[in-house]
Structure formats: structure tokens, C-alpha cells
Amino acid sequence: MNHVVISGTGLYTPANSISNEELIASFNGYVQQYNADHAAEIASGALTALEESSVAFIEKASGIKSRHVMEKSGILDITRMVPRIPERSDDEPSIMCEMAVAAARQALERAGKSAADVDAVICAASNMQRSYPAIAVEVQSALGIAGYGYDINVACSSATFGIQAAVAAIQSGQARAVLVVNPEITSGHLNWRDRDSHFIFGDACTAILLERADLATSQHQFEIVGLKLKTQFSNNIRNNFGFLNRADESGIGQPDKLFRQQGRKVFKDVCPMAAAMITDTVAAADISINAVKRFWLHQANLNMNLLIARMILGRDATAEESPTILDTYANTSSAGSIIAFHKHQDDLAAGSVGVICSFGAGYSIGCVVVKKLG
């Protein structure tokens, strides 16, 4: 059976960024306008007045200070509060393909590989802009990769599930190298009018090149030494948008067609599940949890990550042990743990062990144990 390494990663970051201050100014402006427009109904008790928010609330609830987005003006426009991302013609590259190609080229360059070295592309993301043709096949074509491609969606765990699929293909001999891309335009499915969640998400795209260890030449190799996946059905994070929502009676823009969650239930359920998953996966790889130098956790909520690390280690993790990127990127769904890995790997010494862990809707959890090679 072939041994597998991660030999390169890439990151596409949108040029636009929205600070908490900008977001709150827009949100509170919307709230004030709504309450003024519906003053009579609110006074009669037919409607409940909306509550304003604050920067302090956002940072305490999530640890997020800003987020990158593909389009900014539409989100901040209180009469719209949806990004303006025009539909492209069939003859143009899709926006997800464009993001993925940019991140993929970085990963290939870092790995010292070309399209000719890759046999498969997996596009793993929480939302696809269309059902078919697969975004992965479009990326494959844009990069000039032979072989095959397909899309998968396991919400915030899409990237780690994509890694598992890539590892299986390489171990079996189906592919020499597999490119996993994670274009996340989470701003498009977020309800920017919801006080409890409008601040959560940002946009980004990551790419991971996995290949046979005996073919890898990169200076940045991480051997896959453990991998485990878990799903458990829950409605606590849900989005009902889909192809059965017809445009003329779709309900597009209605709350259940956008992201929604019961945050307290998610926090209570997922933290112990993720901590147990990490502990079990590390133990199955015959590694002591105390030997793990770095935890690249899903970047959804700072309080969740702090608690998960405390449950694993029996103490608070240091910033070096569990790096955070969600303060400036926010929750980028499946890309989050990979952004943390991409940005916080080069300082590790050869032989260091780390864990990439995602957790999200499903519930879904993916855990990948890696060891840095010299």
C-alpha cells in the first residue's frame, strides 16, 4: 500500500474585507429602518422590534474581528444585504473555479509539481454554485489535468473528507497525486439580517496536493499517519436551499433557505465529539496526545476551539499549539482548518506531529494526523 503525503497547500484570499465596525454599522442601520417602517405593528404587538448588535457582542460570541468576502457593497447595503455576484455565461470560468485555480497553482508550485503529475481533482465545499457539470471537472480542465474529478459536500468537514478520499485513491494505486480544492463562498448563503449569525462567515479557497510519498520532492511534506471520519445526523445546523426551489416560488431569501443553526446546542454537542475524535485518532496512530505539537482546528468559533483543546490536553492550549485565523478570516467552512494549516506549518521541526480537525453540519467530523518529514 502506498504511503501518502501532503506536499503542498495553497490559499486564495478575496481582496475585500469587512470589519466588525463596518458590519455593525450596516446591521444596526437595517434594524433602525425596519423598526421605523414597522412602528405601528410593533406598537400593537403584531411584530417584535429587532434588536441592535455591537462589536463587543460579536467578538465575545465568536472571536471574529473581520472577514474576507467576494463582494462587499451588496452585503453592507441595508436595502439589499446580499452580495452582488453576477451570474456568468457558460463560456466563462465559474467563480468557484476561478478561486480554486488560484489556490491550486500555489499548492502545485509549493509541491514542485505540474498538472501532468496529478491524476484527480476533488472539489470539496459546503455549497456548490451548480449541480453539474462538477466544479472539480471544470477546475481539472482549467488546469490541464488528465484523469478525473468530482465534487463532494460534507459541509464544514468537506476538506478533511476530501483528504480521506484522496488518500484512499493514492493508497489503492488509482492516482499518483490528487488535488483537493475548497472554494467557499459562504457569504452567499448567510442571512446577513440575522443578529445571531450575520457575523459568522467569510469567503476563501484552499487547495491541498496529496501524493505518493515515493514521488514527492517538496520541502514541505507531511505524512498522513492517521485519519478518521464520523457523521451523526442533526438538524441543529441546516440550510434547505436546493434545486427543487423553483425561482418563481422558491422562497429564496427566506430564513430556512439560508444558513441557520441552534448555536448553543451545536456547542454542547460538537465540542465533546470533536475532542473524543481527536483523542481516539491520535491514540489509534500509536501517538501520545502530549506529543502533538499543533492542532489545526476548524475555525468556526474561538470559544469552541479553546474548550476542545482544554478537553484534549487538560489545560489551555498555547497560541502556537492551536493557532487561530478566524479573527481575520471568520468561519470559512471547510477551508478554515486548512487555512490554519497553510499559514502555521513551516515553523515545525522535522518529526513534529500535528492534527487537522474539522467539525460542522451533519454533524460531520474529520480528523487527520500528520507528521512533518525532514
In a few lines, what is going on in this structure?
This protein has 374 residues and is α+β, with helices and mostly antiparallel strands. It has eleven helices and 13 strands.
Distance between the termini: 22 Å
What is the CATH class designation of the domain at 222-372? Alpha Beta
- Please state how the strands of the largest beta sheet are arranged side by side: 5-4-6-7-1-8-13-12-11
Mean pLDDT: 94
Radius of gyration: 21 Å
CATH topology of the domain at 222-372: Peroxisomal Thiolase, Chain A, domain 1
The residue ranges in which pLDDT falls below 50 over 5 or more consecutive positions are none
Provide the succession of SSEs: EEHHHEHHEHEHEEEEEHEHHHEE
Helix percent reads: 25-40%
In the CATH classification, which architecture of the domain at 222-372 applies?
A: 3-Layer(aba) Sandwich
Quick one: CATH superfamily of the domain at 222-372?
A: Thiolase/Chalcone synthase
Give the helix/strand class.
alpha+beta
Largest sheet at a glance?
9 strands, mixed
Overall outline: globular
Number of helices: 11
Which percent range describes the beta-strand content? 15-25%
